[in-house]
Automatic annotation (TrEMBL):
<keyword id="KW-0547">Nucleotide-binding</keyword>
<keyword id="KW-0418">Kinase</keyword>
<dbReference type="InterPro" id="IPR027417">
    <property type="entry name" value="P-loop_NTPase"/>
</dbReference>
<keyword id="KW-0829">Tyrosine-protein kinase</keyword>
<dbReference type="GO" id="GO:0042802">
    <property type="term" value="F:identical protein binding"/>
</dbReference>
<protein>
    <recommendedName>
        <fullName>non-specific protein-tyrosine kinase</fullName>
        <ecNumber>2.7.10.2</ecNumber>
    </recommendedName>
</protein>
<dbReference type="InterPro" id="IPR005702">
    <property type="entry name" value="Wzc-like_C"/>
</dbReference>
<keyword id="KW-0067">ATP-binding</keyword>
<dbReference type="InterPro" id="IPR050445">
    <property type="entry name" value="Bact_polysacc_biosynth/exp"/>
</dbReference>
<feature type="domain" description="AAA">
    <location>
        <begin position="52"/>
        <end position="170"/>
    </location>
</feature>
<dbReference type="Pfam" id="PF13614">
    <property type="entry name" value="AAA_31"/>
</dbReference>
<dbReference type="GO" id="GO:0004715">
    <property type="term" value="F:non-membrane spanning protein tyrosine kinase activity"/>
</dbReference>
<keyword id="KW-0808">Transferase</keyword>
<dbReference type="GO" id="GO:0005524">
    <property type="term" value="F:ATP binding"/>
</dbReference>
<comment type="similarity">
    <text>Belongs to the CpsD/CapB family.</text>
</comment>
<dbReference type="InterPro" id="IPR025669">
    <property type="entry name" value="AAA_dom"/>
</dbReference>
<dbReference type="GO" id="GO:0005886">
    <property type="term" value="C:plasma membrane"/>
</dbReference>
Length: 232
C-alpha cells in the first residue's frame, strides 16, 4: 500500500465537520454529548476509559464520529486521546492536519516513544495519535505484544481513549483491538448499511470477546435527527 497524499482542500472539508468544536451549542454537538453520556452510563461497575468504534463497511462517517466524540470527552475536562488505528486508510490526520509524527506505526516499530508520537491539538485536553506510515502488515502489528504494551502505557496516561478502526467486515484489525479495550461500538450508516451486514459485524465483535456497548446510527449528511445511540 502507498501512503495517501493529503489534499489541503480535502483537509479543510474534513476539519469543518468537527461540529462539536466549531459550534458546541448546536443541536449536532448536543447529540454527541448525549452519546457520550450513554457511553458513560453503559457500565456502572467500571469506567469505560477506552472505546473502539468500527463499522461494517467503508464510507460510514466513522472517523468524523470518532473525532466529534473525542472532542466532547475533552470538553468534559478529560485528557482525551484519539487513536487512528486504521493503518490501511488513515483519516484522522485529514481532520487534524497539523498532527505530525511517526504515529502508531512508528510506536509499533519501536522508532519513537509515546511522548514523541502523540500530538497535542488546538483543542484543550485533546490529543491525537496519527496512524503514521502505512505498514505492509497492520493486523500483525495490532495483534502483537508490543501493541498491548503501548495500549497499557496510553491507558495509564489518558482519561479517555477512542480508537478509530477499519471496517470490521473487511479486515480483522477491529477484532484484535476489541479483545482488550473497555468497550466497542458499531457505527451504522442509514441507507448504506444493511441489517445483515450489521448482524455479521456484531457477531465478529462478539467472537473476539469484545464488550459490545451498542451501535451509533448516523447519516453522513449530518442531519440533527439522524444521530442516535442504541445499546447492544
Amino acid at each position: 500500500m502507498k501512503n495517501f497524499k493529503r489534499n489541503k482542500k480535502e483537509d479543510v472539508q474534513e476539519s469543518s465537520k468537527l461540529i462539536t468544536n466549531l459550534d458546541p451549542r448546536s443541536p449536532y454537538a448536543e447529540l454527541f454529548r448525549g452519546i457520550r453520556t450513554s457511553i458513560e452510563y453503559s457500565s456502572v461497575d467500571q469506567a469505560l476509559k477506552s472505546i473502539l468504534i468500527t463499522s461494517s463497511e467503508p464510507n460510514s462517517g466513522k472517523s468524523i464520529t470518532c473525532a466529534n466524540l473525542a472532542v466532547v470527552f475533552a470538553q468534559q475536562n478529560k485528557k482525551t486521546l484519539l487513536v487512528d488505528a486504521d493503518m490501511r486508510k488513515p483519516t484522522v490526520k485529514k481532520i487534524f492536519p497539523k498532527a505530525s509524527s511517526k504515529g502508531l506505526s512508528g510506536l509499533l516499530a519501536n522508532k519513537v516513544k509515546v511522548e514523541e508520537a502523540v500530538c497535542k491539538t488546538e483543542i484543550e485536553n485533546l490529543y491525537v495519535l496519527p496512524a503514521g506510515v502505512i505498514p505492509p502488515n497492520p493486523a500483525e502489528l495490532l495483534g502483537s505484544n508490543r501493541m498491548k504494551q503501548i495500549y497499557e502505557e496510553l491507558y495509564a496516561e489518558f482519561d479517555q481513549i477512542i480508537f478509530d478502526t477499519p471496517p470490521i467486515q473487511l479486515v480483522v484489525d477491529a477484532q484484535l483491538l476489541g479483545n482488550f479495550v473497555d468497550g466497542s461500538i458499531l457505527l451504522v450508516r442509514r441507507d448504506h448499511t444493511t441489517k445483515e451486514a450489521s448482524k455479521k459485524a456484531l457477531e465478529k465483535l462478539q467472537s473476539a470477546r469484545a464488550n459490545v456497548l451498542g451501535s451509533i446510527f448516523n447519516d453522513t449528511k449530518m442531519k440533527a435527527s439522524d444521530y442516535y445511540y442504541g445499546e447492544g
